[in-house]
Task: inverse folding
């Protein structure tokens, strides 16, 4: 059988552009399936842009790109007969024309990296309005929405109703989808946590710190994500500024490493904002190494003591699982991504109000023991197992 895999953020692995979890999953799936798959895999990815073009788009440019890729991917799918081809879709807003392909008999399995309606409810509506309320309003007056909102609301609605199956990374995401679209068959939605991504093995902490110029006795806090407002790195700077004024601030050096590159519409502005906040700290040494990968990423993970994940909204903790593989416990805000992977003894899930309290507590705890427990969990849940489950879903879709 043939599987056509469409991905608006796919095919840019060699560029090392900060495109987020959807691009990372595409790269990992294609690498894993190149080793062994029960089907013939064909890829449909953008041809006229680079990954660095995409992260530089403003809202209007990105909406235009989304429509262009919708047309290109729909055309590519129609080159194959629906009788012997399943379609795996890596996107929703940038995805193909779900409705027309459904009418033509194609069976689509869509990967949900983010529920954008839930994201808008959490980030822009500050959880005052629920995702199901936003979906209900769209059903009533959505025809009035401008195209940029149609890409969010109508495309997601079409995806839900006209995909044959969905792969979602957490039980909470499935629950939200069913609340927003109550006529959806729950059996279509498959909860598939991604597990721990492939990575280089941990290096020795002393060697990694020496290579990076970090003192051997330092407390090293690490974040790794693209630099954008919803990733909320500013929370860490705010609590560190508060902690600097407290009597219990550590006497040993404290290093904070903010790994990641500016990405998407507000990335550059957010990076400048973060650097301004970092410059105001007096006791904490802050480093911005940019987007890291390969051996450089290995060094920073190996040198750290605690992974800090202050993001406001995450569908799955992919970088949390990566941190666990390196033997790091984590401090995270409470969201679906954290609840999907955090276990007792792996660190702490905090609120905005308790983030400093938990940071102080963890800094005085046995971080190494918590990191070993997290590492054991990550090794029991490799990404390869999730890739195999998704491959099996695709085979069942065609049968």
Result:
């Amino acid at each position: 059988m043939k599987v056509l895999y469409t991905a608006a953020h796919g095919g840019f692995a060699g560029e090392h552009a900060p495109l987020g979890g959807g691009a990372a999953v595409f790269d990992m799936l294609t690498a894993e399936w190149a080793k062994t798959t029960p089907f013939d895999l064909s890829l449909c990815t953008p041809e006229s842009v680079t990954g660095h073009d995409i992260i530089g788009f403003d809202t209007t440019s990105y909406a235009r790109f989304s429509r262009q890729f919708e047309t290109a991917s729909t055309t590519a799918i129609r080159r194959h007969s629906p009788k012997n081809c399943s379609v795996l879709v890596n996107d929703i807003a940038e995805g193909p024309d779900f409705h027309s392909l459904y009418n033509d008999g194609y069976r689509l399995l869509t990967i949900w990296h983010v529920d954008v309606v839930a994201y808008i409810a959490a980030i822009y509506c500050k959880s005052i309005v629920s995702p199901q309320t936003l979906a209900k309003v769209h059903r009533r007056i959505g025809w009035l929405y401008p195209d940029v909102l149609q890409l969010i609301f109508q495309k997601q609605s079409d995806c839900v109703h006209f995909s044959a199956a969905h792969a979602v990374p957490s039980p909470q995401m499935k629950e939200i989808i069913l609340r927003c679209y109550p006529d959806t068959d729950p059996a279509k939605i498959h909860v598939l946590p991604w597990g721990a991504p492939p990575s280089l093995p941990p290096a020795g902490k002393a060697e990694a710190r020496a290579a990076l110029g970090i003192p051997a006795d330092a407390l090293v806090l690490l974040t790794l994500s693209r630099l954008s407002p919803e990733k909320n790195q500013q929370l860490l700077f705010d609590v560190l500024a508060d902690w600097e004024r407290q009597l219990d601030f550590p006497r040993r050096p404290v290093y904070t490493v903010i790994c990641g590159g500016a990405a998407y519409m507000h990335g550059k502005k957010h990076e400048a904002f973060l650097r301004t906040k970092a410059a105001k700290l007096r006791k904490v040494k802050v480093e911005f190494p940019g987007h890291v990968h390969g051996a450089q990423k290995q060094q920073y993970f190996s040198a750290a003591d605690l992974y800090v994940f202050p993001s406001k909204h995450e569908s799955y903790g992919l970088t949390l699982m990566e941190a666990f593989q390196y033997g790091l416990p984590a401090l995270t805000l409470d969201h679906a991504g954290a609840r999907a992977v955090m276990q007792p003894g792996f660190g702490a899930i905090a609120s905005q109000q308790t983030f400093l309290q938990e940071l102080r507590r963890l800094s005085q705890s046995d971080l190494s023991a918590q990191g070993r427990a997290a590492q054991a969990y990550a090794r029991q849940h490799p990404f390869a197992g999730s890739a195999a489950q998704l491959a099996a879903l695709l085979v069942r879709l065609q049968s």
Remarks:
- The chain is about 45% helix and 15% strand.
- The first strand starts at residue 2 and ends at 6.
- The chain has a mean pLDDT of 93.
